[in-house]
Structure prediction request, 407 residues.
Amino acid sequence: MLKSRLKTLFLAASVTFLAVSLIAFPQESFDASIRGLNMWWEIVFPSLLPFFIVSEMLIGFGVVRFIGVLLEPLMRPLFKVPGVGGFVWAMGMASGFPAGAKLTARMRQEGQLTKIEAERLVSFTNSSNPLFIFGAVSVGFFYNVQLGVILALAHYLGNISVGLIMRFYGRSEESTTKDKERNLSIRDAFAALHRTRIKDNRPIGKLLGDAVTSSIQTLLMIGGFIILFSVINKLLFHIHITGFLAKFLEIMLGMMGMTDMLSLPFISGLFEITLGSQMTSQVQDATLMHQAVITSFILAFSGFSVQAQVASILAQTDIRFQPFFFARIIHGFFAAFYAFILWKPVYERFFQDGQPSNALPVMEYLASEGSRLADAYSLLATAGPLITIGSLLIYIWILGNRILQEK
Prediction:
C-alpha cells in the first residue's frame, strides 16, 4: 500500500512539475514542440508508414507465416524464437524504431509467439535504420558518410549480441517440453500461408483499409511521444537538471580519457537520440573516435522517447517492458565497445581522413551505399511533409466512410 501511494505521489508531483515548467518556459516549449513536429512529419511518418502498411498486409495474407516456417531452423537455434522472428528482425532493421515492437506485439496477439519468445524478440529487433544512421547522423551531423560504416557495424553487431544473450532469458518460465525438430519444407510453408489467409478471411479492400488506419494510428501516437520528449528534454536543460546529471558523468568520462564536454550530449541522448547525436557531433574538444563511441551508445540505447513509444505498444499485450529496457542498456555498451575496437582496423585503415584508401571492395560498397542513403534522407526530408499530409487525408477519408457505413 505504501509503495502504491509513493508511486501516486511521485507521478502527480512529476506531472505538476512539468506543467509548471511549461508555464515558466513557454517560448522554449513551443520551439521544442515545433522541432519534434518537424522531425515527425518530415522523416518519421513518411519513412515508417510504407513499412507498417506492407507489414500488416504481409501478416494478413499469410506471407509472414510462410517466412516463419522457412526461417525456423535458423532463428530457433540462434535466438530461441520462432522463424517469424526473422521477418520481424529484418523489417525492424529496415524501417527503424519502433517497428520491431509493433510487429512483435502483432505476432503475440496472433498467437505466433509465446510471452517469453516475444520478450526475447522485441529486445533485439528494434534498431535505427540505415537511412537515419547514414543520412541524419553521419552526413547531417558529422558531414562524414564513411563514419556511418562504423556506426552501422557497431549498431547491428550489438543487436546480434543482445539477441544471443537474450536467448537465455526466461528459460525457467518456459515449458519444459522440447522444441520439435523441423526440417525446411516448402510444402509446409505454403500450407501455413494458405491456412493463414483463409483464417483471416478479410477482403483485400478491408485488409488494406485496416492496414492504413492501424499504421496511421500508431504513427500518430509515435508523433505525440516525439513532441512530448522533445519538450521535456528542452525543459530539463533550461532548469539545469541535464547539467546537474552531466556533472556525475564527467568523472567517468575523464577516467576513460574522454573530454567532459561529452557529458551533456550523452545525458541529452539518453532522452532523445537525434538531439544527443547532434550535440555530440558539435563537441570540438573530442576526438572523432570518442564521438563515434558516445554516438553508438546513444543510438543503441535509443532514448527514453523511443522507449516510451515501445512501452505504449507493448502495453496492448502481456509483453513486459523490463526485459526490453535491460536489453537497451546491454546494446548501448555492446555498440560502444564495437565502435571502439573497430575504429583502427576499419575506419583508420580504410577511411583515413574521411576518404577510402586502398579499401576492400566491401568497404567501397558500404561507403557508396551510405552516400546513396544520405541522398535518400535529404529527398525524404523534402518530400516528407507532402507524403504525411496526403496520408492523413486518406486516413480521414477511410475513417469517415466507415463511420457513415456504421450509421
Summary: The chain has 17 helices and no strands. The chain has a mean pLDDT of 84.
